[in-house]
Design goal:
The chain is an all-alpha fold. The protein contains 8 helices and no strands. The chain has one domain. Helices cover 43% and strands 0% of the residues. Helix 2 packs across helix 3.
């Protein structure tokens, strides 16, 4: 994914507005799968070993996030598992939409877990298709004024099948949000 993103960014040039400090994609809760959870947990273990102060700061922000938004969480607030009922799914559509991700360092405007970020974060910005046959989508700040052809020329391929297969191998179809994973 990192290679694919770098290639898409090279092709896009100035059309891609994503830069360090741009936090458009760092607000709002979104569902993450077991593979994203594993990535984040790996990152937190590494940060605890190499930069415990940063790891503890992330955990404090995540715990604050859970305290603030947990009462309205459409799922199990103890485990952090998102509910699957129709009502839970509807409630999630409006849940914590303006909340900053606890991985976002409020001083630097950078993601403190960038290397281990979820797939949703990895594909936000460049033009991508969420499924075969879907139209291209990209961050509203990117490709402003670009033609459909210019945008399409910068499409970033996403290995959806590989992600799905890896999640199946993990054997856990439950979803959560970043804050519950980072809270420790």
């Amino acid at each position: 994914m990192d290679t694919s993103l770098a290639d898409a960014a090279r092709k896009a040039g100035a059309w891609l507005a994503c830069r360090p400090g741009c936090t458009q994609c760092c607000h709002g809760a979104f569902a993450i799968n077991a593979l994203d959870v594993a990535r984040l947990q790996t990152g937190m273990r590494e940060l605890h070993a190499t930069n415990p102060g940063k790891a503890e700061a992330i955990e404090r922000r995540a715990q604050s996030w859970v305290m603030e938004f947990g009462p309205d969480f459409p799922g199990d607030v103890v485990s952090g598992v998102l509910g699957t009922s129709e009502d839970d799914q509807e409630r999630f559509e409006e849940f914590a939409n303006e909340a900053a991700c606890p991985a976002l360092d409020p001083v630097t405007g950078l993601c403190d877990v960038y290397e281990w970020r979820p797939m949703t974060c990895r594909v936000f910005g460049p033009p991508v298709r969420m499924a075969e046959g879907d139209s291209l989508g990209c961050c509203e700040l990117c490709f402003v004024g670009a033609s459909e052809e210019e945008t399409a020329a910068c499409e970033m391929p996403v290995p959806h099948e590989l992600e799905e297969r890896l999640v199946e191998e993990i054997g856990d179809a439950r979803e959560t949000v970043v804050a519950f994973v980072l809270a420790g």
